[in-house]
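Quick illustration, no need to memorize.
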Amino acid sequence: MKVSIFTSRGTLVHEVDTLTKELMKRGAEVNVVQPHFSVDEAVGPNFGANFLNCDVLYYRAGLGVAGKYLLGRMTDKNIYSVNKNVLQNVLLGHKLYQAVLVSRAGVKVPQTLLYTTNQKYQEIEKILGSDFIIKAAIGMQGKQVFLVRSEKEYCEALKHLSGDILLQQFIPNDGDFRVFVLDGEIIGIYKRNPKSGMFKSNIAQGGTGQAVTDTALIKKLSEIGQKVSSELSLDIVGVDIMMGADDNELYFIEANENPGWRGAEKALNKNISAAVAEWMVGKNKKFIL
C-alpha cells in the first residue's frame, strides 16, 4: 500500500509526522509531499508522477486553492482520495458556505452576516447587538477572529481582515467542543477551554482540552458532528460546536477539513494517528476489492 500525504513546506506538523510513522508500522510506503507549485510544473508532462503513484492520497495543505483543485482533477479513479470533497469543492473551507449547508440540515448556527463595503457599526449593532464576532470567512486556528464591543474595536478589526468577512452573533460561553469524526464515526469529543482573559478556545491560541464525560451531551454532540460530516462529505473532520451560556443551546461554529489532533490526543489520552492509519489501511483494502 502506497500513501501520498500533502502538507506545507517546512517542518512536518505533528499530525503528518505521527501518521506517517503509524502507517509505516502497518507496512505502508509513505510519500510526504511538500510541493512547490508553479505553472511550468503543472503543464509539464511529468507533473504528478512522483506523488500520484499511490493507492491512497491525503491532501492536507501545500497547493493553494487552484493547485488542490487541479490535483483533484488529476487524481486517478483507482486512487482513494481522503476528503475528496476538499479537492473538488473550492468553497468547502468557506465558513459562510458551511453555515448555510449545516443550517439547511437542521443544525443551529449563530446569526451570521456577510460584511459589505463601508458597512457601519451602528447598522450591525441593530441586528447582532453591541457585542459580536468579526472574522475572515476562510481561516484556521482562531486566527483573524475578533470580538467587537465598540465602534472603535470594529474599525480596528477591519484593518486586519481582507477577502470575505463575516459578522456573527456572539454566543456567551465558557469554551467550545471539538468533535473528531472519522468516516462517520466519532473518534473523540473534548471541550476546549480558553486561556484566561481570552475569548478564543483554540489549542493554537493557548486553550486547553478536557474529555467530555456527560453521556447525554456526548450523544447530542455526536449527532451534530456526524450530520456535519455527512453534509460536507468529509472522511476526516473536526467539528467545532459551542454551548450558549444563556440558553444551553448547541451552535455549530465551523468544520475543519484539515484538523489538527495533537490537542485531542492529549485531552483524550488516545492515539488518533493510529486510528487514522488503521482506517486508511482498511479503506484501501475495501476500495481495491
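Residues 69 and 89 are 8 Å apart (CA to CA).
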